[in-house]
Design goal:
homodimer; alpha/beta; Isopropylmalate Dehydrogenase; 10-stranded mixed β-sheet; 12 helices
Chain lengths: 361, 361
Amino acid sequence: AKAFKVAVLPGDGIGPEVMAEALRVLDAVETKYDVKFERTHANVGGAGIDNEGKALPETTINICKAADAILFGSVGGPKWETLPPDEQPERGALLPLRKIFGLYANLRPAIIFPSLTGASSLKEEVIAGGFNVLVVRELTGGIYFSQPKGIEGQGRDRIGIDTMKYSVPEIERITHVAFQAARKRSKKVCSIDKANVLSSSVLWREVVTGIGKEYPDVELTHMYVDNGAMQLVRWPKQFDVLLCENMFGDILSDEAAMLTGSLGMLPSASLAEGTFGMYEPSGGSAPDIAGQGIANPIAQILSAGMMLRYSFGLVEAADAIDKAVAKVLDQGYRTRDIYQKKDGEKLVNTSEMGKAIIAAL
Amino acid sequence: AKAFKVAVLPGDGIGPEVMAEALRVLDAVETKYDVKFERTHANVGGAGIDNEGKALPETTINICKAADAILFGSVGGPKWETLPPDEQPERGALLPLRKIFGLYANLRPAIIFPSLTGASSLKEEVIAGGFNVLVVRELTGGIYFSQPKGIEGQGRDRIGIDTMKYSVPEIERITHVAFQAARKRSKKVCSIDKANVLSSSVLWREVVTGIGKEYPDVELTHMYVDNGAMQLVRWPKQFDVLLCENMFGDILSDEAAMLTGSLGMLPSASLAEGTFGMYEPSGGSAPDIAGQGIANPIAQILSAGMMLRYSFGLVEAADAIDKAVAKVLDQGYRTRDIYQKKDGEKLVNTSEMGKAIIAAL
Ligand SMILES: CC(C)[C@H](C(=O)O)[C@@H](O)C(=O)O
Ligand SMILES: CC(C)[C@H](C(=O)O)[C@@H](O)C(=O)O
């Protein structure tokens, strides 16, 4: 059997609960597809701070380095919110992981399942039939990582400084990811920038336009980020792939995710060059419901599915997971976050949802 | 009679049509309140380019300098879209106007009138009873204006660079504007930043927190911009005043405006220290419907109302305009953009709407 090494980083809050279900799904895939997932667990986020003194301990980094992919739960919670930002679970774990492993391409699907349109805060007529937007976000450049960055001066003379830089190769590689993804979807890329104000966006738009010529089968449009934030609300179905620099992607992917109304359903992938990647739910650690066994494990399970697809090339197994999730939703299985008290719905807890998905596999 | 000097910059597209109605409303205010508005017209945007070779001609700057306030229409259109960004109507006129006149405080109300909830793409249950969010956006600092900014290098070695800087005094003065505004509203300020990633946001949050102590009667909360983009969609009624740096304010104010479903209704003010200000509709120049006499003049009329309130201290007249607009909406007057084919609605054109508002004054 083919074997893949997975670094398992459950993290905080509901992370360990939903991770347990994703791991059971991996067990089922092992049996069915004659593959092996060798898993090593490691601490991250608040669990890293509490057990090893840091949000991203050295041991964890080494376990990730030895792996073919990282399956990530979620991090953060009120317990660690008073730490300095650099040391907090989210920032202290996620940003270094992205940088160390060169995870430059963040894929964030915002999918509204036709059976779940009721959960969206958008009107039925705006989202009838669902929508499916893929945000492709640049993840290791721009204002997140460029220098200079810091606070200079003293007292009232202090100045806070951040820098947004993009080089041509940085823009090129993320643009290719967006176009390649669009080819497997509805063949439309809308590139988001603020080229009427930002120089980095002027370069962004020029480079994206150039790369676009290599993909004559894909339609390319450009939109300012402020208009993008409006158009998502007005008519999300107009979009297929949204190509964004780091910060615009942070904002618009969250807006798009919330428009679906079911954050607990959305997976994400952060890819390096080659096949290495990190996979995590788009939602947070939901400390308010942690430990109750009621969290929705679907985002974590779909994240495992993305890992099979993008890092391991197990397309058939990945498709099977996606289909199993769609099937249990059609069968009416609902965790509390997506339960709408409609006829035919069955309210289930975390492990019941996991079992239903495995049964459907 | 007290006299005020107004620089009237109608601009492009529907700008001149809706401006004509706003000026008729000013006529009516002159009669009723024994004041005088001395108006000087000037070219701006595409009209500036076509007539004087620049989006913001010198003559226009001088007319504005001689005025007590600027009443601005809207600029831009397909005719000028192929010009370099710096010379285009929007950027070439708006950014220099903001800088030259020190218009650091941008007030952008996103109000959904109870009678117009149907126009929003949000569900009835999310917006029942309407909502009223005021975005207070810093307008002369941050990534829009800080140096270094530009594209360096040649060919594939080029790097696009922007800088986001904020000083303590810059943050302090916009924070005071937000708290003062909140005092006249529901006494809540939510400050938007990205303090988990940006150094300028770390300083922003610290300074806002400090100023907040001077307003113990106003509740202050902080929210990351990505979460802000989500929360606006999920439950806009949770917000009263949103305090934002320049770019976050650009994005969130447009998102909030679109959530109301009636961009043609929303005014804005851009204020300098002292009483000088520029007043303009939040929507664009709508070239697709320009010249047909069907545009909604309400945003322009409410912008004139904000001018009376903030620059001229004519609070009574400003209140009267706001009330007149609410009244004609209650009476069922609707321009095409807000017409929902409901019982009791009367479809009217631009000048009929203007007349109805004047009659209600
Ligand atoms: C926690 C934070 C640093 C992070 C980001 O801004 O990238 C998060 O919001 C995300 O989108 O993954
Ligand atoms: C036209 C553009 C420069 C401007 C901005 O980004 O500020 C516009 O979007 C706005 O919000 O007034």
